[in-house]
Amino acid sequence: LAPLGERPEPLAQEGEWTAYLDLDTTGLVYYFNGKTGESLWEPPTSSFPVVVLPRRVRRKAESKRTAYIKTLADLEAKEEFPEAPTARDEEEALQKRQNDKEKKKEQDGEWFDFLFEEEPDPEPTLFDKVFSSKGEDTTSDTTEDKPAEEATTESSDEDGKGGGWGGWIGAVSDPVAEDETVDETPEKEVEKEKRPGLLERLSAVAPSVKDAGPTEDDTTTTTTTTTEPKEKAPGFFELIRSTAAASTAPVVEEEVVEVAPKPQKATTTLPQPVKEKETKPKEEKIVTPVAEPKPIKIEMSTNVLPHPSKVFWGGEDAVFVTSRTFGVFDGVSGARKLDGVPLYSKTLAGEMRKSVKQLEKENGGEGLSVPELSSILGNAKDIADQTSTGASTAIVASITQDGFLRALNVGDSACLIIRNGKVAARTREISHYFDCPYQFSTDSPDKPRDGTRLNVELVRGDLIVMASDGVFDNLDDSTIVDLITSSLEKNIKLSALAKQISDRSRKVSLNRKSLTPYAKQAKRNGDPDFADGLGGKLDDVSCVVVRYA
Questions:
Q1: Which of 32, 100, 471, 521 is the least buried, fewest Cβ under 10 Å from its Cβ?
Q2: For 358-389, how does the pLDDT look when each residue is reduced to its tens digit (9 = 90+)?
Q3: In percent, how much of the chain has pLDDT > 70?
Q4: In terms of C-beta density within 10 A (0-12 exposed, 13-18 middle, 19 or more buried), how is residue 354 classed?
Q5: HEC readout, 502-547
Q6: pLDDT digits 0-9 by tens, 21-30
Q7: Closest listed residue to residue 161, CA positions, set 192, 127, 195, 185
Q8: Can you tell me the distance from the alpha carbon of 204 to that of 188, in angstroms, rounded to the nearest whole number?
C-alpha cells in the first residue's frame, strides 16, 4: 500500500470494491477489493458506478497512457519485450479452422463445430480433451447434462465479459451437438479459461470509463463505448493501442462546452450558424436642461423689548446679526451694576459683531464653526471684563456654507429650528441652579467652553427662533410654533414676526393667571410668588428670527 499521504483518491465505490486511477504507470482505471486484496482492470459488477474523471485528471491519464504505449512500442522495436507468443499463429490457425469447418459444415451439417476447436499444441488441449470421445455412446448422458451445461454457459458469460477466451467460451457454450459428448474439463484448465488475461482486461478498461461530467471548475462531455466480440484475436500491441484509443477518442479535438447550472436537453453537435448580434439603433438621449439650484437666501429680523422700568436707558438685553451669524445676550437683572459704565451684554454684542464681520470677510462669508464662535466669544468676554459692568448670558449661532447651523449656548436663552410646523431641533439651557444660569461677568468662573452645543443640517424653508428667557419663560415651544404658523398663513413679513413673538411674550408676562413655563418651575422650587403655578414673568425680551430659504 502507498503511504498514507500518497494513497490514491477513490473514484467510485460499490461494496468492497473501489475504483482507482493508475497515474504511476498505465494511466488506466483499476478496481481493488479492499477485503480480499483482488485487483481487476474491468468493473467487478455490471452495476458498478461509471467512473467519472475530472478534465485535468483525464488529461494526466491520457498523457500517462500515451507514454506507456510508446514505451511498449520502443521495447517491441528493440525486441526486449516480445509479442504475445501465439498471437500470429492464433490468427493463422483460426483462419484455417474456419475454412475447414465451412467445408465440414457442407458435409455433415455441423456448422457450429468449428467454434469449439482449439489451436493445435504439442500437448493435448482442452478442445482435444472435450471432443476426443466423439465415437462413444454418450447421447443419453449429454441429454441429461444439458441443465448443467446451461449453468456453465451462464457462468461463462459472466466471466467472459472482459473479452478474450472468456468471451469466446461464453459465445459458443449453447450450440452443443446432441451426438457429441463433452467430458469434464480439468479444474486448472477451467480456471485458466474463465480468468481473463492482461490483454482482455486492458481491452475492457476503455468502455468502463466515461469522460468527466461537470465538476466544480470544469465541464466536459460524457461518452460511453461498447465492445463487440471480434472474429480475429488482435495482437498484444493492437489491443493496447485500441484500449488507449477507446479511452481517449471521446476527448480528442473536442471543444469543451460550458454548461449552465440547470440541466439542459442534449443538442446536436453540428455547428450552428452564428447569429449576428442585433444592433439596436442608438436611442437619442434627450438632455433636459437642469435648472441650477437657487442660491441659499438667509433672511433675518430682530426685536428687543426692554423691561418697562428700564425703557429710558434701553434695557439690559442686546442682539447682533451679520450675513450668516447672529446672537442674543441677556443681561442678568440681579447683577451689580455701576452707573456710567457700559453694560456687559451690550459690550459682548458689539465686540462679537465686529470680530465676526472681520472673520467672515477673511473666509469669504462661509460662516463660523463652533470652535471659532467659542474663540471670538472668549475674546469678547475678556474685553467686557475690563470695560463693562453687570453680567450676561450668551447664545450665538452661525449658518455655514454647507447648510449646517452651529450654535453655542451659555445660559438660559434658547434657539429653536422649526420645520413643517414642528420643532426639529433645540439648544439646551444650562444653569447652576434655579434662577441662576451660566453667565459671564468679572466674578463668574464660567467660560465659553462650558456652554452646550448644537450642530444640525438645515432644509430650505426652516425657520430659526433665537430668544432670551424673556420669551421662553412665558411661551412654551408649541405656542411659539402656533404663532409662527398662523403668521405665515397670513403672509406676515419676517421683519414683523420677531416683533409678534416679543409682543406675545410681554402680554403673557403681565397676566398673573397665565400658565407659563417659568411658573411651573418656580412652584417646583418653592417660590412663594408662584405657589399656584400660574403667572408670567416680566423681563427684558430679545428675539431673532431667521429664514433659511
A1: 100
A2: 998 898 888 999 999 999 999 999 999 999 99
A3: 61
A4: middle
A5: HHHHHHHHCCCCCCCHHHHHHHHCCCHHHCCCCCCCCCCEEEEEEE
A6: 887 888 888 8
A7: 195
A8: 24
